[in-house]
Amino acid sequence: MLRRTRIHPAPRRASTAPAALAAALDSFAHSGNFRDAVLISANLGGNSDVVAVMCGALAGAHYTAGTIPASWRNSLIKKQLIESTADRLLAHALLDVGG
């Protein structure tokens, strides 16, 4: 369920990187899942595209890619390229961690 209560008012315009990051973190903190986090941030106005990207990255890392709505994943342009690149990046990161 999308929560609309905010502890801090959303900035009118996240026109600087710190303001956009603060808005993304606030959106993430006031959501309970990937979808709600991204929708909250995307609907802030101003530079909400930037805020939604940052919030989506954070929410994806926290909730995992499997929680991204299937309709969103399936509508991606070049979906297979994105997925194969992500798989290669993960494999590379795991190799670096392993030794």
Topology:
Blueprint: H1 17-29, H2 34-42, H3 48-63, H4 70-74, H5 79-98
Helix pairs in contact: 1-2, 1-3, 2-3
Account of the protein in words:
The protein is an all-alpha fold and 99 residues long. It has two domains: 68 residues, no CATH class; 30 residues. The chain has five helices and no strands. α2 packs antiparallel against α3. The termini are far apart. About 5% of the residues have low confidence.
The biggest sheet amounts to:
none
Summarize the amount of helix as a percent range. Answer: 55-70%
Total DSSP E strands = 0
What is the number of independent domains?
2
Radius of gyration over alpha carbons? 15 Å
Mean pLDDT: 87
Low-confidence stretches: 5-9
Strand content: under 5%
Q: What is the end-to-end distance?
A: 42 Å
Shape: globular
Q: Looking at the chains present, what oligomeric state does this protein adopt?
A: single chain
Briefly, what is this?
The chain folds into 2 domains: 1-68, no CATH class; 70-99. Helices cover 64% and strands 0% of the residues. The protein is built from 5 helices and no strands.
Key features of this structure:
single chain; about 100 residues; 5 helices
